[in-house]
Recover the amino acids of this structure.
């Protein structure tokens, strides 16, 4: 195995395990016939090119990368409602298999771009042949509407590299606010949606 592959392997293991754990948590809610605060979960290990780019941009030396680059392992949890995000945050705090190191609430304090999400940095142990190894991972928790906005903005960023023309920057802020309004409107019919989900889940059975 090449050096980078060896370095990234524990991160890959952490991402795989965390995806399974959060997906199981979702299924546990559904098994009880309850609304799951987790809609779906994705995860990725940062690419080598992206790690190198961030090392240059943030002036991170190779010997401190494990501590100073907190998003080499990344998990993203999507929720239906804003309330669900804070429920997931509480559930993560209660877990004994991960320790919360840092939290950033970009929902109450949206980024200047309009970006909203709740970020948690955790320490998580993976078990390797020579013993346990603590891995730092970033968990981003957001609604489906926040995810839609962030995905589109991320794509647009490939073209503009963060230097948006003024009109696009303005539109992005407007669309971010519209996405948040949508979340607020959805929250107001939350009980109706959850009731419909219970009926749907009962008739559909378990997810695989
Ligand atoms: P990718 O491809 O998702 O991995 P930094 O990582 O240096 O930018 P910091 O302070 O270390 O910033 O972390 P922060 O701001 O808490 O989280 C950075 C990550 O949040 C980004 O990772 C994105 O995933 C997401 N994010 C933050 N701001 C924005 C934004 O304005 N738009 C979108 N679409 N996503 C954002 P990466 O590494 O940039 O990208």
């Amino acid at each position: 195995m090449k050096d980078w592959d060896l370095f990234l392997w524990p991160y890959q293991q952490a991402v795989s395990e965390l995806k399974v754990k959060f997906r199981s948590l979702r299924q546990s809610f559904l098994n009880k016939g309850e609304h799951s605060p987790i809609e779906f979960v994705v995860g990725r290990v940062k690419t080598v090119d992206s790690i190198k780019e961030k090392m240059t941009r943030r002036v991170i030396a190779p010997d401190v990368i494990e501590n100073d680059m907190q998003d080499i392992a990344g998990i993203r949890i999507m929720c239906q409602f804003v309330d669900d995000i804070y429920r997931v945050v509480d559930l993560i705090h209660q877990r004994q298999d991960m320790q919360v190191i840092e939290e950033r609430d970009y929902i109450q304090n949206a980024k200047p771009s309009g970006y909203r999400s709740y970020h948690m940095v955790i320490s998580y142990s993976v078990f390797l042949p020579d013993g346990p190894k603590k891995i730092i991972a970033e968990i981003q928790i957001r609604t489906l509407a926040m995810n839609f906005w962030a995905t589109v903005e991320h794509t647009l960023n490939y073209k503009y590299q963060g230097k948006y023309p003024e009109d696009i920057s303005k539109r992005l802020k407007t669309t971010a606010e519209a996405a948040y309004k949508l979340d607020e409107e959805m929250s107001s019919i939350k009980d109706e949606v959850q009731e419909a989900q219970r009926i749907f889940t009962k008739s559909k059975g378990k997810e695989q």
